[in-house]
Specification:
CATH architecture of the largest domain: Sandwich
Shape: globular
CATH topology of the largest domain: Jelly Rolls
Structural class: mainly beta
Number of domains: 2
Radius of gyration: 21 Å
């Protein structure tokens, strides 16, 4: 019994394997869950100026990153095999990036005097090893009225809708699940609802429908429309 007791004490003192760290629960000041349904999971992410964020895990879902603020470089130190460091270059509000997805475990350091704010939109129905193409969509230099398709893939499309002050802009689309992301204060109207959205607000339409976008301030309305095609794992 004495030997068994010593063995148990020794085992208890051994360093435990690093558990998966869910950032929503362990880092609530940096990661907030704002939508979770069978199609997508959306996190709002914030790194303060020169903030360091401890090691945590992310899902391996294909992901769209939508940048809500101008920010400087951010360093991601990946605690993986083999380990590596990646520094995200400065980004502009309104830019986005499409990633085919991969398992991630990393720490973060914001290297600038600017906060970094963005949405992490995880695409739960698109397989990890799909043919989804990586893409960086730059923010427009000026907000000129229009509806421009900025990304097209068999699995999703992304439109940038900009609407000047004065008249609503129609944005009818096919009957597909749609996520709207407001990049400036915008009014969204569908056949059944009206909603005022601020920068970073989202609106989920399980089946897209005829809608209109209009400006709610003297600045133009600016919205990303992300439409998902039906894909089975």
């Amino acid at each position: 019994m004495k030997h068994l007791f010593r063995a148990l004490i020794f085992t208890a003192l051994l360093p435990a394997a690093a558990p998966a760290q869910n950032p929503v629960s362990t880092l609530p000041n940096n990661y907030k869950l704002i939508l979770d349904n069978p199609d997508i999971r959306v996190l709002r992410v914030h790194y303060g100026p020169h903030e360091k964020v401890g090691v945590h895990n992310h899902s391996d879902y294909p992901t769209i990153y939508v940048y809500l603020s101008d920010s400087g470089p951010v360093r991601f130190t990946h605690d993986e095999t083999p380990p590596f460091v990646m520094t995200r270059p400065p980004v502009k509000a309104g830019a986005f990036r499409v990633s085919p997805g991969r398992p991630e475990r990393h720490s973060v350091e914001n290297l600038s005097d600017l906060s970094s704010d963005y949405l992490r939109i995880e695409l739960k129905k698109i397989p990890l090893h799909s043919t989804l193409s990586p893409k960086r969509g730059e923010a427009p230099l000026t907000l000129i009225q229009g509806d421009k398709q900025e990304f097209s893939d068999p699995e999703l499309t992304i439109h940038r809708i900009i609407c000047s002050v004065g008249a609503p802009c129609p944005a009818a689309g096919p009957d597909l699940p749609t996520l709207l992301v407001a990049l400036t204060p915008s009014d969204i109207k569908t056949a059944s609802t009206e909603k005022q959205m601020r920068n970073g607000d989202i609106d989920w339409l399980p089946n897209s429908q005829s809608l209109s976008v209009s400006a709610s301030t003297p600045a133009p309305a600016h919205v990303l429309e992300i439409q998902l095609s039906p894909v089975s794992k």
